[in-house]
Amino acid sequence: MIDKNLFKKAITYFLFGSFTIVIALAWNSAFTELIQRYLPNKEHNIIGKFAYALILTILFIFIASLFFDRTSFESYISK
Fold this sequence. Notes:
- It is built from 3 helices and no strands.
- By secondary structure, the protein is mostly helical.
- It has one domain.
- The longest helix has 35 residues, at 4-38.
- The relative contact order is 0.08.
């Protein structure tokens, strides 16, 4: 028997992940254009891209930690 609450949580996680990918691709395109416009030098361009990736990763981890309950996720994995 499928647990309906577990199924709803799984669908929510999958949808959140899907939208995250779409949004990330949109922002990636925008920031890539921004970096290429204001840092045309290749050396600065690489540094800018890594800084952008690091900042977004930290920001995403912070935002995701606000949305997901860690204890329920850990109990789901341990089943």
